[in-house]
Amino acid sequence: MELRELAEQLSGGSLYVRTALAGAHMGQIAVGKTEEDFAGWARVAPPERLPATVSGVFCERMSSRRELILCGGGHISKPVCALGHMLGYAVTVIDDRPEFANRARFPQAQRVLCLPFAQALAELPADASYVIVTRGHQDDAACLARILQVPFAYCGMIGSKTKVAAVMQRMRALGYTQRQLDAVHSPIGLKIGAHTPEEIAVSIAAELIAVNSVRETSLFPDDIVQQLRHNAGRMVMAAIVRREGSAPRGAGARMLVTEDGGCFGTIGGGSVEHAAQARARALMGGAPELQQYELGGGEASHLGMVCGGRVTVLFTPIAARTEGDG
After folding, report:
1. Which residues contact 114 (CB under 8 A, 6 or more apart)?
2. Using an 8 Å Cβ cutoff, are 157 and 164 in contact?
3. Strands annotated E in 208-253
4. Can you give the residue ranges of every domain in the chain?
5. Would you call the peptide bond into 51 cis, given omega within 30 degrees of 0 as the criterion?
């Protein structure tokens, strides 16, 4: 499979991806919906954590977007929506009151749904992040009961200890296990002494970052996806496949360099990224290759990086699309 085709397939949700790092298959990718879908060079023992390299194959679970769904359009949701958008989430706001669910109130939201919560949550995306900030415990319970039925990246619910206890007791009565309930962050947000809606929003955003930083899903940024779908010119994908020691970005970070001078995504910024951009432009139309960049001492000092680590970057050239490619 080629990277352009992968970009199309990612529109349907997250996928398991294998990339060859050596030999005749270097740069080739294989895709599956489960670990059992791989054969040939891509069939390696699944690592304990993703992303990881096993027997010369880079293994990862990949998604093209991060979704944040806000249940409730009140005073806390406004700054949470703004911060979520700033952090790169596609934000959906749900409320059954027109004065709280409208585009003027949430200009940064991708979707604003003025619907009963049960109707709006009838179809939930897997691996989304959910923030429950409705106006009352009955709506909180209705939202949580639905969200607990799907895999989620994060779920947080606001409320006093009394309110949270009542909602959790109702969930137990509905048959949800303590393990499922323990996955819900409530009280919501990191404990930073927040009081105002804006401060509470910062605490929620910080908790989102903390939780998602240890998840095993690589993000295939939307701007890269759009370039792969719509830019017919030659490109080179630069992907970190190994990080050793301290480095700004870890395995799975990606940067796409286009022949027309564009650069999308990031592998950490700074002079090392600049050097990687230059190498990518030199490889237009060439063959895949691996490059190591030291981030401490020697060449790294010359490049202005003193983190003390090392990253291995796979450069994968992408051919121009011809008329017959669709």
Report:
1. 95, 96, 97, 98, 101, 102
2. yes
3. 217-219, 235-244
4. 3-63+220-325, 67-212
5. yes
If we measure between CA atoms, which residue out of 58, 28, 31, 12 comes closest to residue 225?
A: 12
Residue 107: strand, helix, or coil: coil
pTM, whole model, 2 decimals? 0.76
> Are 187 and 164 spatial neighbours (Cβ–Cβ below 8 Å)?
yes
Number of H helices, E strands in the chain: 10, 15
**Could you read off the pLDDT of 43-83 as tens digits, one per residue?**
988 887 889 999 999 999 888 778 999 999 999 999 999 99
Question: Both tokens of residue 132?
Answer: 């429950």
pLDDT digits (tens, 9 = 90+) for 5-58: 999 888 766 789 999 999 999 999 999 988 889 999 999 888 878 899 999 999
- Say what the pLDDT of residue 35 is: 81
The strand pair at 57-63 and 67-71 is best described as: unpaired
User: Cis bond leading into 248, ω under 30°?
Assistant: no
Nearest-angstrom CA–CA distance, 19 and 241: 9
Return the structure tokens found at 102. Answer: 């409208």
Angle at 24 between CA 19 and CA 25, to 5 degrees: 20
Q: Which is the CATH superfamily of the domain at 67-212? A: NAD(P)-binding Rossmann-like Domain (3.40.50.720)
Phi-psi region of 88 (alpha: psi -120 to 50; beta: other; left: phi over 0): left
Q: How far, in Å, CA of 273 to CA of 305, rounded?
A: 10
* Coil, helix or strand at residue 249: coil
Write out the DSSP string of 284-305. Answer: TTS--EEEEEE-SSTHHHHHT-
Q: Which two tokens stand for residue 198?
A: 């804006």
Q: How many CB atoms lie within 10 A of CB 67?
A: 21
